[in-house]
Design goal:
Elements (H helix, E strand, L loop, with lengths): L4 H63 L17 H4 L14
């Protein structure tokens, strides 16, 4: 039995009109609480990240002192996963008879 599109649109419209006040009430009551809950969770994540960063810094300091090294700045290029790509890439095709180092 096929549904009549007219009837289903009336039912959907009726349900929407019946549920709209309930939705608005729940949104007014729970909306601020949900936002506040999200902010509380964000604060917990930020605190975790700070504690983790401090722990990582402590481990780095320990590893450097155990190796007898002094900390120094890292060139930004070293942080890129493709740091050797410019040196190893070429725009030209290999020349026949020329030995290429890979």
């Amino acid at each position: 039995m096929a549904e009549d599109p007219y009837t289903s649109s009336i039912v959907a419209g009726t349900l929407d009109s019946l549920l709209k006040p309930i939705y608005e009430l729940v949104e007014k009551l729970a909306g601020p609480a949900a936002g506040e809950l999200g902010q509380m969770f964000a604060d917990k994540v930020r605190a975790y990240r700070v504690r983790n960063w401090i722990a990582v810094q402590g481990r780095i300091k320990f590893m450097l002192s155990a190796a007898g090294l002094e900390p120094k700045a890292i060139p930004p290029r070293m942080l890129s996963p493709n740091r050797y790509l410019p040196e190893s890439s070429t725009w030209t095709a290999p020349t026949p008879g020329v030995q290429h180092l890979d």
